[in-house]
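Reopening this one. Same input as before:
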Amino acid sequence: MKFRKALEPSVNASAGTSKRPRLKASGNLCLGFSGGLGSSILLDIVHNTYFSSRPPLDDSGKPRGGTNHPRNASVWPSCSVCYVEVCGAFAGMRDQTEDIRSVIQRYPSFDFVPLRIEDAFDDSWWTMVSGSSSIPQISLELGKEGLIADGLYVASRVTGLTPVEALRSYLSSLPTQTAISSAVQNLTRVLILYTAYSRGSSHLLFGTSLTSLSISLLSSISQGGGYAIHEELQEEWAPVTATGSRLSGALRVVRPLGDVTAKECAVYAWWSDIAVVGRDKQRRAILGIAGLTKDFVVGLEKDYPSTVSTIARTCEKLEPKDAPSGQCRLCQRPMQSGIQEWKGRISIRSFSDDKLAADLTHLPSSSRDSLDTNSTPSELPPSLALTNFLCYSCHTTLTSRSSRGLKRSVPDVSSAAPLPTWVADRGGGLNKVPEEEMHDIVAEFLIDN
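Same output, byte for byte:
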C-alpha cells in the first residue's frame, strides 16, 4: 500500500540491522487535521491500520494474551488530532470546530486537540506548550527598512490587544492577499508543530495528497521558499534554543499520502463512506498565488495526467547548495545564509534619502541618535533589525507590494503589527543551556582552586 510504504520507513528512530525491523516509535503520534479530503482519508487509514486492531484489555488495563505477544505491540502509545480553527482571522466565517469534533468522535482511539489561529498571539498558549514565562508582545511597522521591531531583545510596551485583535491587526498590515494566505498557512503549521512537540509526539502526519503537494511545492517556490523545498516533502523539526542548537527529540513531519492523487483519495472516501467537512468558501477565495497555482495545475492535469507526479519527483531531487544558517523566527524553517548581504547588493535605497531619513522618526530617540543616516539596512544595530532572523520567503511576504494594492477588509487595530509569540521568545523554558556549554562560556572568568 502506498500509505505504509511512505510512512513506515520513518517510524523507527534508527534503521537497525534487521531486514524487517519491528515498528516502534519513540513517542506519540499526532495528526494535523483540516477537515479536507486528504486529512479525512488520513484519519481513517491511520485508525484502521494501527489502532482499530488492538487487542481487548483485561481488568488491569493491559492487553490480553501476554505482554510479549506480537499482537500487543503498538507502534505509537497514543494519537492526538490537532485542528486549527481559522474563523477568528476573517469576519463572517463560520466556526467549524464542532463539525470537526463530531468527525473525530467516530474514532475513539484518538484525542481531539482543538486550537484557534489566534492562539499564535496568546501568551497563555505559548506558556502551556513551551514552559516559558509570559513574555511581552512585540510589534513592528511593516514597510520600515530593516523591519525594525521594538523590543526584539528587550521588554517592549504592552499593547493590551486581545489575541483576536492582535491576529487581525497582523493580517491587515500585510501587503497582499498572497501574504495573508501564506501567513495563515504558516501560523497554522507552527501552532500544530509546537502542540505536537509539547505532547511528546515523535511523528506528525499531514494528509497532503500528491496533487496538493505539487501545488504546495510550486506555490512555495513562487513565493521565495525554494531553499526549504525539502521541508515541504519531509522534515525533522525541533525548537531552536537561543544559542542556535536544536533540542533533542526531533519531531518527524511526514506526508504519507504524497504518492496518492486527489482522484484516488476521492474514490477511497466514496468507497469507505467517509464524511468530508471541507473548508469555508470565504477562505478559498483569498488564496492569492496558491489559488492561481491550484487552478493552473488542476487545469493542466486534465490534459497531462502525469503533471503532479512530475512536479513532485522533480522537486524531490532539489537540494540546497549550502547548510542553513539557522531557523527562521516566523515560519520555523531553515534559513539560508547571506540573505541580507545579497539583498544589500541589489538594493538601490539608503538612509541618505530624505524620505528614508524621515522614516526613522518612529524609533526611540536613544536609538535614532545612534544610527548613521548614511548606513544601509544591513548595518542597523542587530537589536533593532528583524530581517536577520527571517528567511527570504518570510521577508518577501512581509514587504512585497502588489501593483493593484490590497483591499483591507479589517480596519487597523494598531499602528504597528503584533507578531506571534514565538518570534519574541528568546527561549524561556526551551533555552536550557547544557552544563558543559555554560562552563565554556564562563571558563575565562573562573578562579582556579
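So the earlier flakiness isn't reproducible anymore. For the record, The chain has 18 helices and eleven strands.
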